[in-house]
DNA sequence: GTGAAAGCGCTAACAC
DNA sequence: GTGTTAGCGCTTTCAC
């Protein structure tokens, strides 16, 4: 059964393809009678317009790519769900790419843009050194990731978040606060969390210690870092983790090291995604405004697609209190 | 700057478009010299083949749709991540649709298939009464959802999962076990969880009580059901929740009702997704083989795309022990 | 080994 | 109001 096309409908209705196309798109002057005839023919043949042919002509696909490390994560899961919702309302469908640990995969998704398979891209992947981004004025927006000079970044206020978390632990009376974050070399704005932590620690004359944990390493490896923290710093009584799942690992390690949380060690996390709040409501954390970040990224992308210049945006964060810190 | 196309490359290299196309696709006999000439021209012009034009000719897009309630959920998040990984390896990209509470949205994603914008579909959405599925032999596979007679279902062994969970609570000495599940009318295989629970309860001469909670209702509403459970059944000492987030809500409600978990009430959940295990390791739950389900769904879809007949598949589940039940 | 030309299904000038 | 036709960028038969 070959696909029914415009021409089949035209023949059936006894009109030209142009007319059918006009009916389809509600464009131009048409008599009631013709419209009805065409509609009837479409129904009889169960006609479905071919989206790809239309895309070829229009030179746009109404597809936007989403490239993040993995959607199997409370933060990115919520973020991508929010992005899809908003883009859908604007008539875009979303192509999802999980690029964790695979720069080549990220690059392949970027190729979709150059191949005209998607109209734009929202990225938050962590792979380094992808040069194709340096192309100027691409319809790309990034979230919490510095990709290249010409690509606008949507981020929450990481510096303030770092200070908020650290301040909370100081207020709670912690003497020896340790921070975890990505390797300092990585081009993500959450190095600012570290800066917030370090500056505040210095202001209070405290020793600042940051352990590095790559986002993309497997969980057991991450857990081992926290085990090491408590082994090397038995005096540690406060942990500011750079995300909530790491905060959980910190708590596990603390308990295994024979410490009670929050009596002996207090822990503050970062992200505050909805499913984390639901599953682990006891966690004290810095909450990122995920919905607003998604909305902002979509706004910027729209402008960028319309050829307008856009600036990076920073949004506020807030601390939500659990009982761990 | 107009896009560079095949013809531009051809002119530059002094050959025909056919030849360039052949070089591009590595097809037919070509002299080394020509190949080099063409490659050089492509590089000089920074040529990118237009994917949409190719799709139009080939009548396939290498895009597969994923339609689930929401990716912002530990189970679906992990499932969709696994699906994307496997489909990517086969050369497919993934269009993600979150259809929670919106049958029209689900239908729109289904239209992508009829419009030739995607080659196939993997669905696990919960909306009822979408008739377009009844079309025979569509390249669609469903996961944990009964869509129509002709569409194969990949599911974990829900009946056995229901028995496993209930048995665990019985073994723990629970006398009054209450179950939660979707409304009985909904066409999802996890009604089998309920059947497992009910049959086992009957076998033990116990009263079976199931409270209904729609997957798509907001969290506070779900929480209210558990509050009601403990108000109406103060004797309740065991909860078998139909998913892990509901298990968490059950625990919250129990604590608020002045009960200790697991001393006074034991709770067993369902799903055992990776991020749930990480954030809430204490939870006893029935773990679905999410990776295998994804792999199986992709296998079936591939066969279906190749025109082969396929059968529904049921995979085994297992109980993982925490301390809540 | 290489090229000319038809066609994938649709849209939009332009003509009448 | 409606039709003719070129063309979106690519692939592939068929011919030489």
Task: Please identify the top-level CATH class of the domain at 158-289 in chain A.
Answer: Alpha Beta
Measured between the Cα atoms of the first and last residue of chain A, the distance is 65 Å
User: Which whole number gives the mean pLDDT of chain A?
Assistant: 95
What is the overall shape of chain A? elongated
Quaternary structure: homodimer
C-alpha-based Rg of chain A, rounded = 26 Å
Query: What fold name stands as the CATH topology of the domain at 158-289 in chain A?
Result: Rossmann fold
- Tell me the major beta sheet of chain A: 6 strands, parallel
Uncertain regions spanning at least 5 consecutive residues of chain A: none
Annotation keywords:
homodimer, alpha/beta, 6-stranded mixed sheet, DNA-binding
Question: Outline of this structure?
Answer:
2 copies of one chain form a homodimer. With 325 residues, chain A is of the alpha/beta class.
Tell me what you see in this structure.
2 copies of one chain form a homodimer. By secondary structure, chain A is α/β, with parallel strands linked by helices. Among the domains of chain A are: 1-38, no CATH class; 158-289, Response regulator (Rossmann fold). Chain A has 12 helices and 12 strands. Chain A has helices at residues 6-13, 17-25, 32-45, 51-58, 74-89, 103-114, 158-171, 191-203, 219-232, 244-256, 274-279, 290-305, and strands at residues 63-68, 93-98, 120-123, 140-143, 153-156, 177-181, 209-212, 238-240, 266-271, 284-287, 313-315, 318-320. In chain A, the strands form 2 sheets. A 6-stranded parallel β-sheet of chain A has the order 2-1-3-4-5-11, sandwiched between helices. In chain A, strands 7-6-8-9-10-12 form a 6-stranded mixed β-sheet, sandwiched between helices. In chain A, helix 1 (6-13) crosses helix 2 (17-25). The radius of gyration of chain A is 26 Å and the shape is elongated. In chain A, 50% of the residues are buried. Chains A and B meet through helix 4, helix 5, strand 2, helix 6 and helix 10 of A and helix 4, helix 5, strand 2, helix 6 and helix 10 of B. Chain A binds a DNA duplex (16 and 16 nucleotides) through helix 2 and helix 4.
